[in-house]
Specification:
The structure is a single chain. This protein is mostly helical. It folds into four domains: about 300 residues, no CATH class; about 30 residues; about 120 residues, no CATH class; about 35 residues, no CATH class. About 65% of the residues lie in helices and about 5% in strands. The radius of gyration is 24 Å and the shape is globular. The two termini are about 45 Å apart.
């Protein structure tokens, strides 16, 4: 736990300093602390992606980052002072004491626990690639998962600090949990004085989501980071509209953050539809310089992600075959890409057979539904009820001839388009959890924010009651899991140093004088040996481009 907390303090300082420097480029206005954290995460991640194209993420990359943070802190020391004066009262208060207890609570889970299945399959090994080479051309041929290229793993790699400690830290998911939950707790303080509770319910959604993943807080899983950013963007969007005066600069920055979130996991790319509202406003007001600045920011964010995609897989967007414009020696063969894309879909639909990829919805939906746990079915039912509740409330507004708020309409569009794509492409619940939570929380918050009377209040009140009942088993499942986990893990010796990555059984195979490893005991592509693959058949169908690993891999 101690190493986790020290790591978080250091990450916080670097992120806030970098975030202050970045946001000062866009506006002279002051932002709440969470905006500086998020801006820092975005800036650091993009920097690491660029750096990784040219070299490994080790001491040199970290020193450059640290110097940049110091320079930003020195140049914006006035902003830092004002932040300190604003938040200092919480340090020595009961609220501050509660925050410290919560940080210790999350640190406990981040110091030990279970790794996400995909962390053992490829997350940890991909972080090791960042540390050893930055990137390796065609590494996706060795294992297709490497080609997914989540930028979140770049953020994990820069704070892994393996070059300093001789072992890799993996504390960033817990760090995201802490800053997002403290953001939620701090906002919920004003619950009683808020006229509208949509944002409050989204804040509670963040806390619910943390409960779902808390036993895997130490796992650098790309799903978790993506969903936290989705939660933040939706919550901050609602906060800006309903509590913050609908500031256009914040809408623009959140739209840039949505573009960034797509580089965490491309399945969340359609959250970027929220950009429609600030784009409309800027074009209407003819603010061409600001339009150029935000477009340039989006390009800066996407550029290293796309370049890395090209170098790792030979495709611009893997595993999407629609853009097939490159023909490189390290390109993953199209048939492998198609098989991988189809496998993702059929596994999401619980079919587990790529031969069933063309099965119509009417046939695969019952199979998918039966494979969900009872508490998951209840949760999905709550989401459906939330959609009905929102529809009923919207009809009531139309009948009362209330003005439609365009920012909220655009947000709903982005949420529902993402849910539709999630459902028809790969409906693993964890892939779309933040969007499903958003449907429930926004609807309930909307209900709490309007005057309910007459027969309509009976209908909407009944829907809210059914939603609460439907969500309860989901909440109860993870509370029980967390309680059992604490009871079983208290004697584990991780109060000083964090639990290390799992060690799998690996054997080596020589290719052109280089040893390449493959897993022999379960799907654990060990961080501790490099380079490696979970699947021997992928190793057998690939080879080195030249005589060294640094030259890259290609298909045989």
């Amino acid at each position: 736990m101690l190493s986790v907390i020290v790591s978080w303090i250091y990450i916080s300082i670097v992120c806030v300093l970098i975030g202050i420097g970045i946001l000062s480029l866009f506006s002279n206005m002051e932002f709440s602390l969470i905006y500086y954290f998020v801006a820092g995460i975005v800036g650091i991640t993009v920097y690491v992606e660029y750096f990784s194209i040219f070299g490994k993420i080790g001491a040199c990359a970290h020193i450059v980052l640290f110097v940049a943070a110091l320079l930003a802190g020195y140049m914006k020391r006035g902003r830092i002072k004002s932040l300190w004066l604003a938040y200092r009262p919480f340090v020595c208060s009961w609220e501050g004491f509660f925050y410290c207890c919560f940080i210790l609570f999350i640190a406990y889970f981040t110091s030990r626990g279970e790794f996400h299945t995909d962390t053992n399959i490829y997350h940890a090994a991909a972080i090791r690639i960042y540390e050893e080479y930055g990137l390796v051309k065609g590494i996706g041929n060795l294992q297709l998962h490497y080609a997914y290229n989540s930028s979140y793993l770049a953020f994990v790699a820069i704070f892994s600090l393996n070059w300093l400690f001789g072992r890799s830290l993996h504390t960033t998911t817990g760090f995201l949990e802490v800053i997002m939950c403290l953001y939620a707790f701090h906002g919920l303080k004003g619950f009683k004085r808020h006229e509208n509770h949509v944002t409050d319910m989204m804040r509670i959604g963040i806390l619910f989501y943390t409960l779902v993943n808390v036993t895997r807080s130490m796992s650098p899983a790309t799903d978790y980071a993506t969903m936290y950013f989705v939660f933040f963007i939706i919550t901050a969007w609602c906060e800006n509209l309903l509590e913050g005066g609908s500031n256009l600069t914040r809408y623009c920055l959140l739209s840039v953050a949505a573009v960034f979130t797509a580089t965490f996991k491309f399945s969340a790319c359609l959250l970027g539809l929220i950009v429609l509202y600030p784009a409309f406003c800027l074009i209407r007001d003819k603010k061409w310089k600001k339009i150029g600045a935000y477009l340039f920011s989006g390009c800066i964010i996407l550029c290293p992600f796309l370049v890395r995609n090209y170098l790792i897989s030979g495709w611009l967007l893997y595993p999407f075959e629609g853009i097939d414009i490159f023909n490189t020696v390290w390109k993953i063969p199209k048939e492998y890409l198609l098989h991988d894309a189809r496998q993702i879909k059929v596994w999401g639909r619980c079919l587990y057979d790529v031969g069933k990829i063309d099965m119509p919805v009417s046939e695969w939906f019952p199979i998918w539904w039966e494979h969900q746990f009872r508490y998951e079915k209840m949760f999905l039912g709550a989401a459906a009820l939330g959609a009905i509740l929102q529809f009923v409330l919207s009809v009531g507004r139309i009948r009362r001839r209330q003005k439609i708020r365009l920012p909220l309409a655009v947000l709903h569009l982005a949420i529902w388009v993402n849910i539709a794509v999630w459902f028809f492409e790969a409906p693993f619940i964890r892939y779309g959890l933040a969007f499903l939570f958003a449907v429930i929380m926004i609807a309930v918050g909307d209900y709490m924010s309007v005057e309910n009377r007459g027969f309509g209040s009976i209908v909407t009140g009944g829907l809210v009651f059914c939603i609460i009942v439907s969500v309860s088993p989901y909440w109860d499942q993870y509370v029980t899991d967390a309680g059992v986990f604490v009871k079983q893990s208290m004697r584990e010796p991780y109060y000083i140093v964090q639990q290390d990555y799992d060690r799998g059984s690996m054997e080596g195979c020589e290719i052109n004088g280089n040893i390449i490893y493959y897993a022999t005991g379960g799907e654990i592509n060990s961080y501790h040996v490099f380079p490696g693959t979970c699947y021997r058949h992928m190793l057998e169908r690939s080879t080195l481009i030249g005589d060294t690993i640094a030259e890259g891999f290609r298909a045989r």
